[in-house]
Write a structure and sequence with these properties.
- With 392 residues, the chain is an alpha/beta fold.
- It has 2 domains: 18-44 and 288-390, Alpha-Beta Complex (Aspartate Aminotransferase, domain 1); 49-286, 3-Layer(aba) Sandwich (Aspartate Aminotransferase, domain 2).
- The chain contains 13 helices and 15 strands.
- Strands 2-10-9-8-7-3-4 form a 7-stranded mixed β-sheet, sandwiched between helices.
- A hairpin with a 2-residue loop joins β5 (142-144) and β6 (147-149).
- α2 (46-58) runs antiparallel to α10 (274-286) and α3 (68-82) crosses α10.
- The mean pLDDT is 97.
Length: 392
């Protein structure tokens, strides 16, 4: 038994929770069991809560900027966990990784320019491109033998054919769970440098890496690669702080950083959320032990899913994740259409997952499930899914 109780069921209804309180508004049954959006059902570390309470008790929430200890906490965490040391003068604070991605699209491309992604991928990537009136191009990941790969020939061909200006990279990849190897990242860098394509690397899930795998930040590839890239990070996923809107974006090219800041200023965003600053600093300073125990718990949850599917629902295949707590399930063995599959999940199993089609057409016949919840919740979800499949 560890220091932290991740088995605790914490009531989240009537707390303004997007995950629990807005099912009906989003077209779902009121009593559905939600394992969809990427937030965890675990309390953030006690030290973070205490720091927030202390700030709240001060009672003044004026315009705020971080002190040096904020940057030092981030630097220590990243140096210790990822073996690259972020530099304070390269950092731009923002409210979220997606907000930063939108800023890069505006800063580095014009309307009609092409931006490339790797579907199936986190759906706000595509929305950010099309909502900003850019051309969305996808070099789809290749799914073979239960694993996803980048087709580098296809990636380069589409970059050339569409005169792509920007590449939004997801590492670790949401939803397929790949943690890109160094040689894969080096190939991306080689292609993008060759064709003058700027890389925006979303590394928000970097702290969720399973045993046997290693996270390699794009920032560790060297000066040439980093001069043509930005690294988007946030403590929001790691420490369950998404609602506090804090993100840290590292931009090493001075001209690109100036363009980014100009776009951000144009939107009226300057000072950060004070509670986000407090939470980020405290989490990186004191959250190490909590995070270590969390990863052990998630490993056990993943093992539960793996074993349960193999024993009870072999027609649903776990795409073995290398990282993230968002698990990708291959449901093609059920022989259902995408519409029938979604009806099975929602109406028969009473589960709110993320349908694979949300992440691109190549995501059809898949479902994404969030396993960052107490084990009893996950067990209930698997039992419901098993019952629904058996009644087909």
């Amino acid at each position: 038994m560890g220091k932290y109780d991740f088995d605790e069921i914490i009531e989240r209804k009537k707390t303004n929770s997007l995950k629990y309180d807005f099912a009906v508004q989003r077209g779902m049954p009121e009593d559905i069991l939600p394992l969809w959006v990427a937030d965890m059902d675990f309390r953030t570390p006690r030290e973070v809560t205490e720091a927030l309470v202390k700030k709240a008790e001060h009672g003044i929430f004026g315009y705020s900027e971080p002190f040096d200890d904020y940057f030092e906490a981030i630097e220590k965490w990243f140096t210790g966990h990822f073996h690259w040391t972020p530099e304070k003068n390269r950092l731009v604070l923002s409210c979220s990784v997606v907000f930063s991605i939108c800023n890069f699209i505006e800063a580095l491309t014009r309307e009609g320019d092409a931006v490339i992604i790797n579907s199936p991928v986190y759906y706000p990537f595509g929305e950010a491109v099309t909502d900003n009136r850019r051309k969305l191009v996808s070099s789809d990941l290749v799914y073979s033998d239960g694993k996803y790969h980048i087709d580098f020939e296809d990636l380069e061909r589409k970059i050339v054919e569409n005169d792509v200006k920007l590449y939004i990279l997801c590492n670790p990849h949401n939803p397929v769970g790949r943690v890109w190897r160094r040689d894969e990242l080096e190939k991306i860098s080689e292609i993008c440098l060759k064709h003058n394509v700027f890389v925006v690397s979303d590394e928000i899930h970097a702290d969720f890496i399973y045993k046997g795998y290693k996270f390699v930040s794009y920032a560790s590839l060297g000066k040439e690669a980093l001069s043509n890239a930005a690294i988007c990070t946030s403590p929001s996923k790691t420490f369950n702080l998404a609602g506090l809107h804090n993100a840290n974006t590292y931009i090493y090219d001075d001209e690109v950083r100036e363009k980014f800041i100009k776009v951000q200023n144009k939107k009226g965003y300057s000072q950060s959320n004070i509670m986000g600053i407090v939470a980020c600093k405290s989490a990186y300073e004191y959250g190490g032990e909590w995070h270590k125990e969390l990863m052990g718990y998630l490993e056990e949850n993943l093992s539960l899913v793996r074993c349960f599917l193999a024993q009870h629902i072999p027609k649903i295949r776990l795409v073995e994740p290398e990282g993230t707590y968002l698990i990708w399930l291959d449901c093609s063995g059920l022989g259902l259409s995408d519409t029938e599959l979604n009806r099975l999940i929602v109406e028969k199993a009473g589960l709110w997952l993320d349908a694979g089609s949300m992440f691109g057409k190549v995501g059809e016949q898949f479902e994404r499930i969030n396993i960052a919840c107490p084990r009893s919740t996950l067990e209930e979800a698997l039992k419901r899914l098993n019952k629904a499949v058996r009644e087909l």
